[in-house]
Design a protein that fits this description.
With 159 residues, this protein is α/β, with parallel strands linked by helices. The chain has 5 helices and 9 strands. Strand 8, helix 4 and strand 9 (139-142) form a beta-alpha-beta unit. The longest helix is centred in the last third of the chain and has 12 residues, at 102-113. The chain is globular, with a radius of gyration of 15 Å.
């Protein structure tokens, strides 16, 4: 019997956003929003969500599925600041943003959400995370150049 999809989990760096070609913990806060809606750090590095992220999050909401973030950044405070500034932090039901293994992130997600691993779908750009989390029973999709509609829909089909 096939499991129901109950939780969709995203990594941040190079999966949902690009922090000027770097991880968020390598940026230079404070972050700011310009008058034309761009996001920059102190070094004027351009920070952005990948273009299809708003549509993907809207689609998940229509599906009635829960969402989560799992990021192992060394600067969780910076990640949260940037999520708040961009207006995306409230789009997620759960967030596990701290420097540790993705296995720890997913153990926390399972405990907090009550959702079993086989009802979770995870998108990440790092093969090691895909392997570790996949060994838990989570369906995982490796993202190569940021999430887009095609990769998201392929992940849904594969689930």
């Amino acid at each position: 019997m096939k499991s129901a999809l109950s939780l969709i989990v995203f990594d941040l760096d190079f999966t949902l956003w690009d922090c000027g070609g770097m991880w968020v913990d390598c940026t230079d806060p404070p972050f700011r929003k310009t008058g034309d809606g761009k996001f920059l750090d102190r070094s004027n590095r351009f920070l952005k969500m990948y273009p299809d992220v708003p549509e993907i999050l809207a689609e998940i909401k229509e599906m009635g599925c829960q969402t989560a973030l799992a990021s192992r950044t060394e600067r969780p405070d910076w990640a949260r600041q940037l999520l708040d500034l961009m207006g995306y932090r409230n789009c997620f039901d759960f967030e596990e943003i701290f420097p540790s293994s993705k296995v720890a992130h997913f153990a926390n997600l399972k405990e907090k959400s009550g959702i079993p691993y086989d009802e979770m779908l995870f998108f990440d750009d790092e093969a090691r995370n895909i392997l570790e989390v996949g060994n838990l029973g989570v369906k995982c999709v490796e993202i190569n150049r940021g999430i887009d509609r095609e990769a998201f829909r392929n992940g849904l089909k594969w689930f």
